[in-house]
């Protein structure tokens, strides 16, 4: 009956009841005077943490007396303490620690974590040629354009064309624009746009994954442009921040938004666009993230 009581208590707290495993790490002892000790503490991976694919993250956890009826006999995790957790593939992962007492009662704690990855969205373009950095980064070539990371499509149309005065605002000469919101990694919540001389391969509301084809680039003028979008329809972040050129061409200088997106592309293996003369002194929005290797 003691084992049944422990199982019901664990289930109510959201834990899993599973079989005990090989002893790994055990910390005994109560907390400060009058303070109950949490039965299982998972230090790494952190609860709902986000890790880049292939990164080396070591497991750290402990089990304390007081969470099960008898003294703790074993404390085991998905991997042993000090071993690397699974970051080999993208997606939501779970790490579980199981405490077992001397009577065989078990209590488990599980934390989810996400493994993410970004990729060079231009890696499959044939004859890729770099062009200027403006409100985004321009390229020419022919072939598929990939999603930089997992995300959700906010804008997808092949008919958003108009005169040059619309560049970066609400229409694009040559037609075709995709805007998607990244859902993981350091830029989760930020919007990416791809526009000009593309045929769109996705639809609004669609979930896309890292490396999935979202559009096909055609080798014609004007060139492809890609960069940070504002999230307000097909408007660039540079326009939203008032960073477009005050000259006749709104993209007549290399905005800070374009330079920032260029750094990300280069970190992912794409060729750098080229800076225009006298790039302005501008700042990205407060708290804007950066890729670790960018």
Major β-sheet, in short? 10 strands, antiparallel
Report the uncertain regions. Answer: 1-35
Beta percentage is: 25-35%
Give Rg in angstroms: 25 Å
- What's the overall geometry? elongated
Briefly note the structural class of the backbone.
Answer: mainly beta
CATH class of the largest domain: Mainly Beta
**Name given to the CATH architecture of the largest domain:** Distorted Sandwich
In quaternary terms, these chains amount to single chain
* Residues in helices, as a percent range: under 10%
CATH topology of the largest domain, anyone?
Glucose Permease (Domain IIA)
User: What is the average per-residue confidence, as pLDDT, rounded to a whole number?
Assistant: 84
Helix and strand succession?
A: HEEEEEEEEEEEEEEEEHH
Q: What is the total domain count? A: 2
The span between the termini is 58 Å
Please provide the count of β strands. Answer: 16
The count of helical stretches stands at 3
Structural notes for this entry:
The protein is built from three helices and 16 strands. The radius of gyration is 25 Å and the shape is elongated. The chain has two domains: 2-116, Immunoglobulins (Immunoglobulin-like); 126-267, Glucose Permease (Domain IIA). The model is unreliable at 1-35 (pLDDT under 50). The strands form three sheets. Strands 7, 8, 9, 10, 11, 12, 13, 14, 15 and 16 form a ten-stranded antiparallel sheet that branches. Strands 2-6-5-4 form a four-stranded mixed sheet, covered by helices on one side. Helix content is 9%, strand content 34%. With 294 residues, it is mainly β.
